[in-house]
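User: Teach me something about this protein's shape.
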Amino acid sequence: MSWLIEFTALWIASGAIILLGGWYAVEKISTRWPNWWRQYIVDDDPSYSGF
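Assistant: First, the predicted structure itself:
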């Protein structure tokens, strides 16, 4: 039965790491990208100014 507790703890921890990594990528890394990268590479609709 202890394997179930360990598996659940690992499952929750890996989910938290994935969610925190996604949050960091969206909130922190995107603001550090150069403007040309955001304008020409990331933005597929140049008329939209959501940045």
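Now, about its shape. Helices lie at 2-32, 35-42. The first helix runs from residue 2 to 32. If you'd like, I can walk through any region in more detail.
User: That's plenty for now, thanks!
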